[in-house]
Design a protein that fits this description.
Distance between the termini of chain B: 14 Å
Number of helices of chain B: 5
Helix content of chain A: 25-40%
Number of strands of chain B: 5
Order of helices and strands of chain B: EHEHEHEHEH
Strand order of the largest sheet of chain B: 2-1-3-4-5
Largest sheet of chain B: 5 strands, parallel
Radius of gyration of chain A: 15 Å
Shape of chain A: globular
CATH superfamily of chain B: Response regulator
Number of strands of chain A: 8
Strand content of chain B: 15-25%
Structural class of chain A: alpha+beta
CATH class of chain B: Alpha Beta
Number of domains of chain A: 1
CATH topology of chain A: Chemotaxis protein chec
Oligomer: heterodimer
Number of domains of chain B: 1
Order of helices and strands of chain A: HEEEEHHEEEE
CATH superfamily of chain A: CheC-like
Strand content of chain A: 35-45%
Helix content of chain B: 40-55%
CATH architecture of chain B: 3-Layer(aba) Sandwich
CATH topology of chain B: Rossmann fold
Number of helices of chain A: 3
Largest sheet of chain A: 8 strands, antiparallel
Structural class of chain B: alpha/beta
Distance between the termini of chain A: 18 Å
Radius of gyration of chain B: 12 Å
Chain lengths: ~160, ~120
């Protein structure tokens, strides 16, 4: 059996930078991150997950997961500093868009590392769930005033079959 | 008053753009949630301007842009995408977009682009 393909450190840095830029510059929140760790081929999500597919010279998934309270704070900040108490249709759309912003920015940062990717429209998963992939997830823990956001990333160079 | 067709699959983004434009005295010609709806609504409403997302289900924004320009060569379309890498911007401008706004954006950036395109 061959070893699982390793994720490139430069790619992981690009995604981390993207998330930090979005939270700090566009949501106006203090933010930081801790050292990424390998979660293996499955992980248990938090309350809300934004799932995005990655296609191009790299392929795989980026899954952004957070507690309900964190999502409410992020959505409130996206809506210009409103207090949001429950996620209505507009709130769900906003949290989906938050994932899109992070992944979109990641695509720009990855382009600097000479990776050309496209992101599929985000899908929301509500409720704690187990996510499984055939490859490996690397988890980037992001801390912010809104709470913790975990970015579970599984991307490897595309293999032409 | 100039009319604008807003195209984005996220209702949150349509609301944000609509809010910026109506505060600046623009009329909203309609809202579309994918590229096909955008083409259909363009034909129906003949807006003065379009804000067009790129990553959308059914038909993406670049395909919709090309289709609109084929039928209406004078159409003014501003792309509005979270995917701001250079290759994406070049593709859009070559396909005939008048400007490219990267999401997330400030209201000023949207109004600068709109005013420049509307001359």
């Amino acid at each position: 059996m061959s070893a699982a393909p390793q994720m490139n450190a430069q790619h992981i840095n690009a995604i981390t930078n993207a998330a930090v830029i979005i939270v700090k510059e566009h949501l106006g929140m203090q933010t930081g991150f801790s050292k990424p760790y390998v979660s293996g081929s499955q992980f248990m999500s938090s309350d809300i997950s934004v799932v995005m597919g990655v296609n191009g010279t790299l392929e795989g998934q980026i899954i952004c997961t957070m507690k309900n309270q964190t999502a409410l704070s992020i959505v409130g900040s996206m809506m210009g500093g409103m207090k949001v108490e429950t996620l209505d249709e507009m709130g769900w759309s906003a949290i989906q868009e938050f994932g899109n912003w992070v992944a979109g920015r990641a695509a720009s940062e990855l382009a600097k590392a000479e990776a050309a990717i496209d992101i599929s429209p985000p899908v929301i998963n509500e409720g704690r769930s187990t996510f499984r992939v055939e490859k490996t997830f690397l988890t980037i823990p992001l801390t912010s005033e809104a709470g913790e956001v975990l970015l579970h990333v599984s991307i490897t160079p595309r293999v032409n079959e | 008053m100039a009319s604008v067709l807003i195209v984005d699959d996220a209702s949150f983004m349509r609301m944000m753009i609509k809010d910026i434009l109506t505060k600046n005295d623009f009329d909203i010609a309609g809202e579309a949630a994918n590229g096909q709806e955008a083409v259909d609504l363009f034909n129906e409403t003949q807006p003065d301007l379009v804000t067009m997302d790129i990553t959308m289900p059914e038909k993406d924004g670049i395909a919709a842009l090309k289709e609109i320009l084929q039928q209406h060569p004078g159409a003014k379309v501003i792309m509005c995408s979270a995917m701001g890498q250079q290759s994406m911007v070049i593709d859009a401008i070559q396909a005939g977009a008048k400007d490219f706004i990267v999401k997330p954006f400030q209201a000023d950036r949207v109004m600068d682009a709109v005013q420049k395109v509307m001359g």
